[in-house]
Write a structure and sequence with these properties.
Layout lengths: L9 E2 L13 H8 L2 E5 L5 E5 L2 H9 L3 E2 L23 H9 L1 H9 L4 H25 L3 E2 H6 L1 H11 L6 H12 L6 H24 L5 H7 L10 H15 L1 H16 L1 H9 L4 H11 L7 E5 L3 E2 L5 E2 L4 E4 L1 H4 L34 H18 L4 E2 L21 E3 L1
Parallel strand pairs: 1-2, 3-9
Antiparallel strand pairs: 2-3, 4-6, 5-11, 6-9, 7-8, 10-11
Helix pairs in contact: 3-11, 5-7, 5-16, 7-11, 8-9, 9-11, 11-12, 12-13, 12-16, 14-16
């Protein structure tokens, strides 16, 4: 790989000076070393991309793939590689099903019409959670009272999971996304337990189908009339949990955090609710640290727009968060513009493997923001933004808590 950095690799994920500020290395890397050697928590080497055009190409170009991450020469994120999200029973089940076939079948659920139909239920859930926060009194942790429980409630509701099993979903989500807290044996046990739960849930839905995603997928067929396999049905639950729980909880928390860190942003939205949609998109772009990024495996030598050649066999880390702060792609990239349009950020990835659940995440964020503005117009941070902290060791690195008052 041709690049401008020495062989000394940075340790990745990069640290940031504060929970609401991005890593200080980003501007230097984008300018002087857009493709940098990094060492992952596993000790394996990878190449980090930080420029917008490079990241977008890596996410879209078929010469770089997600499926290649299961190859023995691909870099592993964590030492517990047997439990890696990218080489897990879930990933193997979906790869066997055919990623594109699976995405087409599941993607039929995530239409704009279906997401709009969910808004009243999401609003009702949000109102109930805010009621509980008001009962608790101020200050209150917005993560514990709203941002964390809401996405798991929504996903469990979509899948038809009983309410009393939601805590199990939270525990599984933490285990799957953690980089260092759990051993390989613990991660394998979590994958096994989740797969057994989902298999039992699928069997239940076969006996008594209802109006939920699992029941609909059981009855669905592809263009050739073939149903989804049993392993893929079970893996779908885990895929949606990973995509929609911790990630969306982190987005909701960061949305509140960045809007309240400079309260003129909150005041602007109070004065003009028509900005909610564009404000959510700008939060997604401006998010200071969206976590690990997306990995790709290079199947053949590929030159990226910055002029660097990625060698075959390289594992690439695509930092969408760094790309979203690229001044070559966004005017005033380091400033937050609630009315920014167009806003072609990469928070959900790009290309054929962009986040399938992004319509749901956007719907949840827009709905939550609207309810917060309506219910708690005087909302403000109860601590200095510099006092906020992120959860270490998770792929998604959400804020550990967000103390607020009103």
């Amino acid at each position: 790989m041709t690049e401008t950095q020495s062989d000394d690799a940075l340790h990745y994920p990069l640290s940031a000076p504060g929970a609401m500020t991005p890593p200080v290395e980003w501007p230097r890397l984008r300018q002087k070393c857009p493709v940098a050697h990094v060492t992952l928590p596993s000790g394996d080497r990878a190449a980090l991309l930080t420029r917008y055009d490079d990241v977008k190409l890596a996410l879209c170009d078929p010469r770089l793939s997600r499926e290649g991450l299961a190859r023995p020469d691909a870099a592993r994120i964590s030492a517990g590689e047997a439990g890696s999200v990218f080489d897990s029973p879930m990933a193997r089940a979906l790869n066997a099903e055919g990623q594109e076939r699976w995405r087409r079948m599941v993607g039929k659920w995530f239409t704009a019409k279906r997401m709009r139909a969910l808004v009243p239920r999401i609003e009702a859930m949000t109102d109930r959670l805010i009621d509980g926060m008001l009962e608790h009194g101020r200050p209150a942790d917005l993560v514990r009272h709203l941002a964390f429980p809401l996405p798991v409630y929504v996903i469990c509701d979509m899948l038809g999971v009983p309410e009393h099993d939601r805590d199990d979903f939270k525990n599984w989500s933490d285990t799957f996304l953690n980089l260092s807290r759990y051993s390989a044996a613990e991660m394998e046990a979590a994958h096994r337990d989740f797969a057994e739960y989902m298999a039992a849930l699928v069997a239940e839905k076969r006996r008594e189908p209802k109006d939920d995603l699992i029941s609909r997928l059981i009855a669905a067929t592809d263009a050739e009339g073939r149903p989804m396999s049993e392993p893929a049905l079970a893996a779908t639950g885990q895929a949606l949990l990973l995509a929609g729980h911790e990630t969306t909880a982190g987005f909701i928390t960061t949305m509140a955090g960045v809007l309240l860190a400079d309260r003129s942003r909150w005041e602007r939205l109070l004065g003009d609710r028509s900005l909610i949609r564009s404000a959510v998109e700008e939060v997604l772009r401006f998010e200071p640290y969206t976590g690990f990024g997306m990995l790709r495996y290079v199947h053949e030598d590929t030159e990226v727009p910055s002029g660097v050649v990625l060698d075959q066999g390289t594992t690439v880390v695509c930092s969408m968060a760094a790309a979203n702060r690229d001044t070559g792609a966004f005017a005033g990239a380091e400033d937050m513009d609630l009315g920014r349009t167009p806003n072609a950020h990469l928070a959900f990835g790009a290309g054929p493997h962009s986040c399938l659940g992004q319509p749901l995440a956007r719907t949840e964020m827009q709905t939550v923001l609207g309810v917060l503005l309506r219910r708690l117009p005087t909302l403000e941070l109860a601590v200095d933004p510099d006092a906020l902290h992120r959860v270490e060791g998770l792929i998604t690195t959400p804020l550990s808590e967000l103390p607020v008052r009103w």
